Amino acid sequence: xATNTSQGRSPRYSEEFKSLLSETWLGYALILPATILVAxxxxxxxxRGIQMAFLEVSLLQPGEETFVGLENxxxxxxxxxxxxxxxxxxxxxxLAVSLQYLLGMALAMVLKEKVPGMRxxxxxxxxxxxxxxxVMVILFRFMVQNGFGPANIVLGALGLETTxxxxxxxxxxxxxVLMHVWRNVPFYAIALMAAMNSIPETQYEAAxxxxxxxxxRFRHVTLPQISYVSMIMIxxxxxxxxxxxxxxxxxxxxxxxxxxxxxxTYVYKTAFExxxxxxxxxxxxxxxxxxxxxxAVYVKLEDTD
Amino acid sequence: xxDSSPDSLRRRKLVQSIGLGxxxxxxxxxxxxxxxxxLEGDGDGGGDSLGTETGGGxxxxxxxxADVLHWDAGLPSDEEDLDTAISNIQNFFxxxxxxxxxxxxxxxEDMRSAYLTGARSGDPDSVxxxxxxxxxxxxxxxxxxxxxxxxxxxxxxxxxxxxIEAMSYQGELYALPYTGNGRAMIYRRDVFEELGQDxxxxxxxxxxxxxxxxxxxxxxxxxxxTKDGGVRAFQEWMSHVYQHTENLYATDGDGWTLNVDxxxxxxxxxxxxxxxxxxxxxxxxxxxLGTGWQxxxxxxxxxxxxxxECGPWIRGWTSGPEIDDSDAASEVLDENTAVAHLPYAEGxxxxxxxxxxxxxxxxxxxxxxxxxxxxxxxCSPTVMEQQKSHSPGNYVTxxxxxxxxxxxxxNWMPFTDVFETGRALAKISWGPVRQEFYPLMxxxxxxxxxxYDAGSTLHSNLKSLEGDL
Lengths: 305, 469
Fold this sequence. Notes:
The structure holds two protein chains of two kinds. By secondary structure, chain A is mostly helical. Chain A has two domains: about 1-50, no CATH class; about 80-305, MetI-like (MetI-like fold, Orthogonal Bundle), CATH 1.10.3720. In chain A, about 75% of the residues lie in helices and about 0% in strands. Chain A is built from 15 helices and two strands. Chain A has helices spanning about 1-20, 25-50, 70-75, 80-110, 120-125, 125-130, 135-145, 150-155, 170-195, 200-210, 215-225, 225-245, 245-250, 265-270, 275-305; strands spanning about 55, 65. Chain A has a two-stranded antiparallel sheet. In chain A, helix 2 (about 25-50) packs across helix 15, helix 4 (about 80-110) runs antiparallel to helix 12 and helix 9 runs antiparallel to helix 12 (about 225-245). Chain A is flat. In chain B, the strands form four sheets. In chain B, strands 1, 2, 3, 4, 7, 14 and 15 form a seven-stranded mixed β-sheet that branches. In chain B, strands 9-12-8-13 form a four-stranded mixed β-sheet. In chain B, strands 5-6 form a two-stranded antiparallel ribbon. Chain B folds into two domains: about 50-180 and about 355-405, Periplasmic binding protein-like II (D-Maltodextrin-Binding Protein, domain 2), CATH 3.40.190; about 185-355 and about 425-469, D-Maltodextrin-Binding Protein, domain 2 (3-Layer(aba) Sandwich), CATH 3.40.190. In chain B, helix 16 runs antiparallel to helix 17. Chain B contains 17 helices and 15 strands. Helix content of chain B is about 40%, strand content about 15%. Chain B is of the alpha/beta class. The chains are: A mainly alpha, B alpha/beta. Chains A and B meet through helix 2, helix 7, helix 9, helix 12 and helix 13 of A and helix 1, helix 3 and helix 16 of B.
C-alpha cells in the first residue's frame, strides 16, 4: 500500500510542479528580484521625494523635519520665479520637441534615400547626439563668444550685430532651444528612418497605382506607420526636455535676468543654494504630476487614433 | 488563445501602468538621455578639471587599496601636473603614516553637492574646499574640529594667523589652509604709462581712467563677472562690500545681523555694475554681459581688457585652449602687467575678499585620524613647496612662513599687501545670500533697475535672511 501511495503521489507532485511551472506565480517569482531592485532605486526615492514635499527640511540638517502640510505648494503659488520657470519650461519643451520632430522627420527622409555616401552621412549625423552635454555647451559658448567666436566672426563679416549671445536677454532662450534641437534631431531622424524602412515598398507601389501623389503617400502610408515610433520619441523627449538641467545650467545658469530659468535649474538652486529641500521636493512633485498627466493623455489620444 | 478575461486585462493594465511609471521615473532621473555631462566648475581660477580618481594602491577598498579617501577640487587641470600633485600628497602621507590615500579630483560645484548629500556615509575621510563650503559643512555637522591634532603638528606655528582665523569658528579650528590670496586690480602697466596714469585708488578715479582708456585705446577698459550663479561674480561683489564693512553679517553670539546699510549696497551696485556696464558711458563692453571667469581671465591674458579684478592664479596662465597666443600672453603677464589694491567708493577703505582654501576632516569618517593625516599632508609646507612647480599661482602669497613666495616680478609684489587687507567670509550659510545677489546684480548691470533701488531691495531681502543664517 505504502508503495502504491508513493507511486500515486509522484505523478500528482509532478503534475503540480508542471502546473506551477505553467502558473503565473512562477513568472512573478522570476521578476521578483528585478521588482525589488526597481523598487529600491526608483520607488523609494520617488516616495521619499513626495513625502518631503509636505515637510520643511533643510539640506544642512536633513534629520530635522517638520510636517507643514500643503504650505510648500501654497508658497509655490505665490512664487513669481517658479511661475516664470514653469512657463519657460513648457515653452522650451514645446518649441524644442516640435522643431526636433519636424527637422528629424525631414532628415530621416533624406537619410532614407539610397545615394552614394549616405552611410557615412548617417554615421556623421549622430555626432551631435553622442557628444557629452558639457562638450556641446563649451562648443556653443565658444562659437558665440564676442570677438573670436566663429558665429560672431561670420555675423561680423556680413555686417550684422555681434554680441555674447548667451548674455543677451532676448537671444539666450532661443539659443537654448537651438542647442536642444541641434543635439536631438539626429536621434529622431535615425528612429523615424528605422520606422520608415520597415514599411513594405509594396504599399507605396499600391498607392502609386491608385494615383496617390508624394504628399498623399506620405500622409496615408508613411505617417500612420511611423506614429507609434513618433509617440515614443515625443513622449521621451518631452520628459527629457522638461526635466533637462545641464544644458541651461552650464550655458547660462538660468540668466540673463532669469530669462532661461527652467524648473530643473530652479529646483537645483532651491535645494543646493537655499537649502530648502522640502520646497524643492514639492516643485519636483509638481513636475512629476505634469509629466504623468501629459504622458497619460498623450498615450490615450494615440490609442484612440 | 490569448486570455482576454477582465482579470487579465486589469493585470495587463496594471503592468502597463507600472512600466509607464517606471519609464517616466527613469527618464526623469536620467535627464537628457542620460548623458555623462558633469557640472562645470565655476571656481575662482581657470580650468577646474572634471572628476577623476587616483587610487593609492591595487587592492581592497573600492578597488583602490587605499586606507583613506580624500576629495579635492584644488588640483591642477593638466593631466601630467595632476599626477604630480597627487603623487606629492600621497608620498608625504605614506611617509608619515605608512598607509595609502586615494585622491579623487572634482570640480568645486560637484564636490560640494556630493559632500552635502553623501558625507554622512563616512566617505570621503577628508575634503578640500572654499571658505563658503567650510561654513556650510560646519552648519551641517559634516566636519569635525581638528585643533588638538593640528597644534601637535611640528609645522603648525608657521601658518599665517589670519588664515588660521579664517579656518576657525567659535574658538574651534575646523580646517588647515594650503593656499590663500586677496583679490586685486590687475592692470596693463604699459597702457597706464602711455596715458600717464597711476592705478586708481578710488572708484571715481577708476571710472575716470576707464573712460580715458576707452577714448584713447582699442582696449576694453574693464571687465568683471556678471554670470548668474557665478561664484566669481559673488566674490567680486563681496570684495567691494568688504571695503565698507568688516563683514556683511555680524554676530553677537546668538544670531547674525546685517552689517551694512542700503545706501552702501546701492553705491557698490552703482560704481561697479551700473557705471561699468549700463551707464551712458560704460567702461566694459555691454556685449560681454552675462559672462564669467571664462571670459574675464583669458580676456585679460589675450590682451582684450586693460583692468580686471583677479587673484594671483592668473600669473602663470599662458597656454591652453583659451589662450590665443602663448608668447603674447607671456608678454602681457610678465612685462606689461602690474597689481594694485581694488579701488573703493566714497566712505570705503582698502579691503578685499580673502580667499583661503580649507582642507577638512569628515565628522562621520571611520578613519578620522588618517583623515586628519590626509589634511596635514595636503597642507604641509613640504608638499606646498613641491606643488609650486606646477601651481605657482597658489603660492604667490603663501599661507605658511616656511614656504617662499613664487613672486619674482616686482610688478606683482603688491599682491602681498593686498593679501593683508583680505577679509574672510563670516561663518554663515552663504547660499541664500548669493541667490538674493545674482538677480539684482544682473538687473543693475543690464540697466533694468536703478542701482540704489536694487541696493534697497537687496538690503531688505538680506535683512529677512537674518534668522535663517
